[in-house]
Amino acid sequence: MTPPRTRPRRGRPAVFNDAMQTRYLDAITAGMRLGEAAQHVGIHSNVPARLARKDQEFATRLADARAAGRKTRADNRPHGEAHYNNDDCRHPDCAAAARKGRARRRATTARQPDREQHATIHDLDPPTPPKSPISLPLLLKAS
Ligand SMILES: [Zn+2]
């Protein structure tokens, strides 16, 4: 059975109607990934992108929702060095974690020269001088 239509139209049926678009965009705004949000409203994940190519208004709403969602996810991430580095969080906890991380890496780098002291030294044979049949007699004559 085909679903009832509000107006006659050609081509693909409206699988992604206004109510679904709103639910989809709300889910994105709340921090859901695109694929998850598509699954959430029950559409294939390529449907919104296809609509965004045809519908500039939807494209703008989607872009806004994605930006808001990125911020939501960043705000929900736990404080730590990654939060400081990736999300520009300047919470004291993040700043402290980043400081500690940097100090640890510096200490690791400073220890590196130790390794050179334990390096194996290989004795190489001295290079053999090239044999030259004429150089010696010439040298003897010259002296
Ligand atoms: Zn933070």
UniProtKB/TrEMBL annotation:
Region ranges (Disordered)? 65-143
User: Which spans does this entry mark as compositional bias, Basic and acidic residues?
Assistant: 72-93, 112-125
Comp. bias (Basic residues)? 99-108
Q: Where is the composition biased (Low complexity)?
A: 133-143
Name of the protein this chain belongs to: Uncharacterized protein
Report the source organism.
Streptomyces lavendofoliae
